[in-house]
Amino acid sequence: MSKVFVPRDSAARSVGADEVAAALAAAGHQVIRNGSRGLLFLEPLVEVETRDGRIAYGPVTVEDVASLPIATAGAHRLRLGKIEDHPYLRNQERLTFARCGITDPVSVPDYVAHGGFEGLNKALGLAGSAVVAEVTGSGLRGRGGAGFPTGIKWKTVLDAQADQKYVCCNADEGDSGTFADRMVMEGDPLMLIEGMTIAALAVGATKGFIYIRSEYPDAIAIMKEAIGAAIAANWLGANIQGTDKSFYLEVRRGAGSYICGEETAMLESLEGKRGTVRPKPPIPALEGLFGKPTVINNVLSFAAVPFILAQGGAAYMNYGMGRSRGTLPFQLAGNIRQGGLVEKAFGVTLRELVEGFGGGTFTGKPIRAIQVGGPLGAYVPASQLDLAMDYETLAAAGAMVGHGGIVVFDETVDMAAQARFAMEFCAIESCGKCTPCRIGSTRGVEVIDKIVAGEDRDANLELLSDLCQTMTDGSLCAMGGLTPMPVMSAIRHFPEDFDKPAALAAE
Amino acid sequence: MSGKTTLPDQTPREATVAREIALRHGNRADALLEILHDLQEQLGFVPEAALPALAKSLNLSRAEVHGVVTFYHDYRREPAGRHVIKVCRAEACQSMGANELVSMIERFLKVKLGQTTADGAITLEAAYCLGNCALSPAVMVDDRLIGRVDAGKFEKIAAECRS
User: Fold this and answer.
1) Contact call for B68 and A274, based on CB within 8 A
2) Interface ipTM
3) Mean pLDDT of B128-142
4) Do B56 and B87 belong to one domain?
């Protein structure tokens, strides 16, 4: 009997992986539900274990199952060959996603067999300050989007004096075009648990929360399953692996609020309150959850840590360019032929990602704009495809890396409509605490409507630019502060879309 | 007539359920979001009558509980249809025609976003990213994510919801 792998990742399930898995099981095959390899355009991807490695077929439909040569892993029109040899996978630099898609996500023995818990094992024998030093030495910066050096944040929490400290994982991945956090939680959740536990040991915290958005029911379920498995194997909970170190971890569901991905709004939400932003200072590292020193990191930041501890900070530092060290799991999304997850060292160009890996647009029409870094990120024109993806290069170009989401639009996109949507989204999701964001976003929608209608166009463009400046300078957090980025980049790179004759605009 | 008269129990069932769920969470105020999720799963929505009971159990003011219920998009104040379909209208799905898909769905179901079909089968809602951005456009039917949705696929989904 051959072992076959069919992902339980929700993207794979969204195009029929459950039905394919059921049909394979009904045909008498041993089906393992792995994570996704991230070649989402090939899902449902079925892999057959052979002596020479895993042979992949995809995208497989239920109707294809009967004709798949599982026993021989032989020829078939959907046969892709050895999955590791697929150029989409072979040309990546997978440090964080090294295991995703290979293992059964909630199997501790699988995880350990593929290098899991090596980092935590090492951290258990080190002083907190040594763990922090390793992370600082790796050059790791916060993967949620802000890019703050992780080691410095951890040191602040380590040095703070308190009877209780917390480690909180921000898994409120609300940015359109991003799904890497979801893939970690569904495909390799034990890695996130390991990373958070290492953080807890580093700073002296004993309690942690993972705040997962409610739009991710599969991730919530798998994360809870993995926590149970880690506790059962004594990698989490009291006296981890017989040491005097303990760490307790709890999953909390969000409730459909985008702003709760902002770290202080997330803290409010974790305390059971409305998700409004807290002014800083005090910084959460000193006064965070319930007023106690708190490490808050994104899923991908924690997920990078087990590798750093296991292989050493220098090994991670070897990847990347300038002050952007290591790798980033980019997410190719939107109107793209080969969408999926591409983990590459910083410095890869947008063109390599979108054209090389992505194969251009899904519709086959020319690329017109690419939104990089989520709904608060800039729209980049096709003429800037050679930009290198690192924090500093993008910042210099008036854009940002954000959480690594890359959304491609073809030539049919109306950039004035996209700019309007950015303001509209901000109006819907603003927490309401500060005026520039709460009021500015609604005024922004109105002004863009006037511009598009051709009403005092020049004066209103100037007004919009002034409004954006006020939002940038005066908002409490990145929601109001960065909404101007997609708006102004759309005006800067695509002015013609804001200057259509009234008759055309009314179409 | 002599003797005691027994008054009927005036406590609404919603309040009793709310108290039980709060107790299950140790009456911890920080667990309010989880409590409201559980309540909604059990009753289908967050009824007004549950709020004073929750406030009392968690030692919060009614205003604080009301504030949380109304702040978060997930909590509904009235029952939904038998199935909830969320259509993603965020950027990645827009790039693959989500706005046209929403219009098509609204025409097909004869409701607008935020409304429930006349037969009570489907409540249609907007979502802003379901995390399926490489397989856009995406919808979520109850807890089931569906990718690469087009008119034909949607009509099948709607038929399943109504069967």
Assistant:
1) yes
2) 0.95
3) 97
4) no
